[in-house]
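Posting this for the archive.
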Amino acid sequence: MATEAPLLNKRYKLLSPIGQGGMAVVHKAQDLSLGRLVAVKILRENLTSDTEFLARFQQEARAAANLAHPNIVTVHDFGRDGGRYYIVMEYIEGQDLKTLIKESAPFPIDHALDLAVQICAGVGYAHRAGLVHCDIKPQNILVTSDGRVKITDFGIARALANIRPGETTDVVWGSPQYYSPEQAAGEHPTPASDVYSIGVVMFEMLAGRLPFVASTQQQLAMMHLREEPPRLSLFNQQMPETLERIIHKVLAKEPAARYRTADQLGRILISYRQQGEDLTGAQLATGNTPVTPQPAVTPPRLTNGATTPLVTRKAEAAPTVAAPTPVDEGLDWVAVGLGFAACIAVFGLIPLYWFVYLAYRR
């Protein structure tokens, strides 16, 4: 005989697990009061014994519940049933970005830009509301069937008001593959930390791999702190040079060298995309043709033993601008008139000069 689906507070009927992480397990559930599907995140039991963590988690869950944005998963409720603490969220039909990356990365440039702009819009809204996500990664980014981005898991978000500049902590916020150098060093994350993580996600979408790969978390942390990321053009033949420079800036080691907020990065990406569309139109109008890429060279060996083709960048043709045609405007009569007046003024002073000379000669 089938067992009855468990209930939380006699309201949320747990249907099936749909995801899990280090902090919680997420279930698809039915809200019996409102008759709708929801996602219920239940904290792992080993975290529920830490009263300080629970108080902070509840405070930050309340802050996340106030984030109403099309690119952020809506938080509906926070509660407790016995020893189980849970968050009730909007249920999203779709896949997480990590799954999509595994299936089809590297993404086309336009597709990656569209997703990145939406990610920046959601995270930027949180920044303006005074929250840092702290754990931006593809697993926390859901994509619907029509391409709409929904950012989830603000469970470890930090309120900017609680962050003291220069303060360090024993708790490393974020995921090792995606956290910023300052997070790796044990410093509190800032909006620029989220920007770095978005840069790692963009790199992965466009390259089909992470910028840093290591066998341990400690090695990853040191790579984020000290090593420069590889050039994206090594892994993506279609990588435009300007976009590669933007992502390289986003992955700068120093927060001050990056774009400061996700909103700022989003504006840069939108501007780049618009300029790219304008350039494409100019090329079509002038009949420019792209330069044929050079053949690939011997692929390098990666740390995990796999090989990735090392390819040359496709040259970006600049639109042809016609030289201006000289125009014969004839004589400049204003200049002639001014010159004539100057001559009269100079010669008219000669009698005065002669009079002064004779006066002093006496």
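The CA atoms of residues 213 and 304 lie 8 Å apart. DSSP finds eleven helices and eleven strands in the chain.
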